Task: inverse folding
């Protein structure tokens, strides 16, 4: 619906609004009935009372370019944006034709290919994705507007603050809409904000325009206000915050007893219901015959769709298919210039660099050769990053490709995810891996699960400077076990400059979120030659560094160097040799070569820097021994850090983590 239709042909516009509002309300009511009949699983959170907002807004959005993510109150918007009413119903039935292949329930679906992003339960999480995808559209030259919704309850989350600030800072044309129905589940606004709080006024604090509108009143007036907002945001490119007064007529969800409502409150809600008011207004204007005809047609259509969807079978129970679709399939290699630099083919050219410089070279190469790339993070632009890995990139590629970000790891990761969903390929630097815990929801629950939930690709590289170098608990974490226990995330952990260079290219061209673990002690651990390596993708497999017979020794990251020293020691002193493997890729794990080694050596040593309990080594030992148990000649040796927060003083850190001396001692004991 074009904005000018509201004034030039108001009758047609009113009848169209009425048709969608009627379908939305009846579909929502029927879904609730079907749920109560036990035909739908999970839960149902109705949008009854929100139609006066979401229907005009979704009709006015430009569905060819705009970006949106609906909430659990936005049934009307889902119907307008989706391909067919049956798609919506199939999702609720969680049947074989569900748009999420029945992997997600009720409102948790969208159409990422058409820029409708499926919500996750975590309130507030989606709005940064909308901001990112909208920016992606703008970068591609499309005058898109984003629409991001959250409730009065969701407005208290940190993601909301982070994203409003980010959107204003970066001038992202997003309409942020607060659906204020005065309750968060059972909690009234009086227990959410200080008295007198008007949420839309927060806009001023972010340097954006804000306004309040009553979406329970005159639908045409609401539509005109929204049309003006959309036009302004599209033209100015600036975000806006709209607080809409809405209603939640059926409680929080189907199971809600609503006994927390004050006497008379429900009656007051029903009296304010925009749907009968709008209908009465149209009847008074003489439109009843036309409306009745449309209503009858839509009611019959809804029932026909329900019948069709009820006949669809249950989803196939294939573990293989689900497992195969957690990650996007392997993407074809990108046409890199065969050189460590980008100034023409020079496969033989070498560079003598530290690992930090190797990473810098790889990032330079990506930015120079791949127009869809950009990098973001704290202090990465002018300053060149806390570890100077991004030095010089701003000068070469400018601020739109090399972005300093505010301290907002969650929103920045959500923003990067939104960019990635639309074909951009962001590389995000976390100043220290530790701060990635601020973005666990965005990384692990959102970006990592998009593929499984919605078939979307999220090519995203997350750089984690990790490991202990005398900086204590909050600048030293080894987070591979935390993140890689979540499905959908890949992880590379290079131990030297060449692998680090290769890992950037391999991670970059992957269609999934890839965490690049960069041990800080390796950044400047000496200079080595790096060269163009046509087999750069081999970093996804372990590399055998030493051949030996006594045991298979598996490690990664900085520990590779301790292991090398220990292996040399045992070879020199005891004539005991080990098959030493640098794992390089932590997820997915490719253990074939290591298994073959274990078949020869029958003994296993696993070493890593992270804590022992629930550490990554536990998974390695379990996987490698469950198949080789009866051929093992010794219990596996697992060496890791103590189960402590990382202590600060060098003497204490020395006690905490594996050292060369401790390693030799443990292996010597084990050898007996
Ligand atoms: C971050 C987060 N915390 C808790 C919940 C559980 N929860 C689901 S809906 C809800 C209330 C939401 O209220 P509001 O944002 O006002 O939206 P409404 O349901 O009123 O439309 C809560 C607490 C959640 N989904 N996300
Ligand atoms: Mg609410």
Result:
């Amino acid at each position: 619906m074009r904005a000018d239709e509201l004034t030039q042909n108001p009758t047609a516009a009113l009848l169209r609004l009425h048709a969608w509002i009627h379908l939305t309300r009846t579909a929502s009511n029927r879904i609730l009935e079907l749920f109560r009949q036990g035909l739908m699983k999970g839960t149902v959170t109705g949008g009854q009372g929100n139609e006066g907002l979401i229907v005009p807004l979704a009709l006015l959005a430009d569905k060819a370019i705009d970006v949106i993510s609906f909430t659990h109150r936005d049934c009307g918007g889902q119907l307008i944006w989706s391909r067919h009413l049956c798609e919506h119903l199939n999702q609720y039935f969680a049947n074989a034709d569900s748009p999420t292949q029945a992997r997600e329930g009720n409102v948790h679906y969208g159409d990422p290919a058409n820029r409708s992003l499926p919500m996750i339960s975590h309130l507030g999480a989606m709005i940064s994705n909308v901001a990112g995808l909208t920016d992606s559209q703008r970068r591609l030259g499309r005058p898109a507007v984003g629409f991001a919704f959250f409730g009065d309850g969701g407005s208290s989350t940190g993601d909301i603050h982070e994203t409003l600030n980010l959107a204003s800072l970066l001038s992202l044309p997003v309409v942020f809409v607060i659906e204020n129905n005065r309750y968060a589940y059972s909690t009234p606004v009086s227990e959410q904000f200080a008295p007198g709080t008007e949420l839309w006024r927060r806009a001023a604090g972010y340097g954006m325009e804000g306004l309040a509108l009553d979406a329970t009143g005159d639908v045409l007036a609401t539509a005109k206000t929204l049309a003006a907002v959309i036009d302004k945001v599209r033209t100015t490119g600036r975000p806006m915050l709209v607080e809409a007064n809405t209603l939640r007529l059926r409680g929080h969800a189907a199971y809600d007893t609503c006994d927390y409502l004050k006497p008379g409150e429900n009656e007051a809600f029903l009296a304010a219901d925009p749907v009968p008011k709008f209908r009465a207004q149209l009847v008074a204007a003489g439109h009843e015959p036309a409306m009745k005809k449309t209503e009858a047609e839509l009611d019959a259509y809804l029932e026909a769709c329900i019948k069709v969807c009820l006949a669809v079978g249950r989803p196939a129970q294939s573990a293989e298919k689900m497992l195969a679709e957690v990650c996007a399939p392997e993407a074809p290699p990108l046409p890199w210039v065969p050189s460590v630099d980008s100034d023409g083919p020079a496969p033989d050219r070498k560079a003598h660099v530290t690992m930090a410089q190797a990473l810098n070279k790889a990032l330079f190469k990506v930015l120079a050769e791949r127009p869809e790339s950009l990098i973001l993070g704290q202090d990465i632009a002018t300053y060149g990053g806390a570890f100077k890995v991004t030095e010089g990139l701003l000068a070469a590629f400018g601020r739109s490709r090399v972005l300093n970000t505010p301290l907002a790891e969650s929103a920045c990761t959500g923003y990067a995810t939104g960019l990635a969903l639309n074909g951009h390929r962001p590389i995000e630097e976390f100043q220290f891996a530790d701060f990635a815990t601020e973005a666990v929801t965005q990384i692990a629950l959102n970006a990592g699960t998009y593929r499984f939930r919605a078939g979307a690709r999220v090519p995203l590289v997350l750089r984690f400077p990790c490991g202990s170098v005398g900086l204590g608990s909050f600048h030293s974490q080894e987070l591979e076990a935390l993140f890689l226990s979540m499905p959908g995330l890949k992880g590379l952990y290079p131990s030297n400059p060449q692998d680090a260079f290769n890992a950037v290219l391999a991670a970059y061209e992957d269609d999934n979120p890839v965490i690049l673990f960069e041990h800080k002690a390796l950044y400047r651990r000496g200079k080595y030659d790096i060269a163009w390596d046509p087999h750069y993708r081999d970093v996804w497999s372990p590399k055998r560094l030493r051949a030996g017979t006594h045991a298979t020794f598996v490690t990664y990251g900085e520990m590779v160097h301790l292991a090398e020293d220990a292996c040399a020691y045992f070879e020199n002193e005891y004539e005991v040799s080990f098959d030493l493997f640098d794992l390089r890729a932590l997820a997915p794990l490719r253990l074939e070569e290591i298994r073959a080694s274990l078949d020869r050596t029958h003994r296993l040593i696993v070493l890593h820097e992270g804590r022992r309990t629930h550490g990554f080594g536990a998974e390695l030992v379990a996987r490698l021994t469950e198949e080789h148990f009866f051929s093992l000649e010794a219990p596996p040796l697992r060496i890791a850090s103590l189960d402590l927060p990382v202590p600060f003083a060098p003497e204490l850190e020395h006690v905490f983590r594996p050292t060369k001396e401790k390693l030799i001692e443990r292996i010597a004991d084990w050898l007996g």
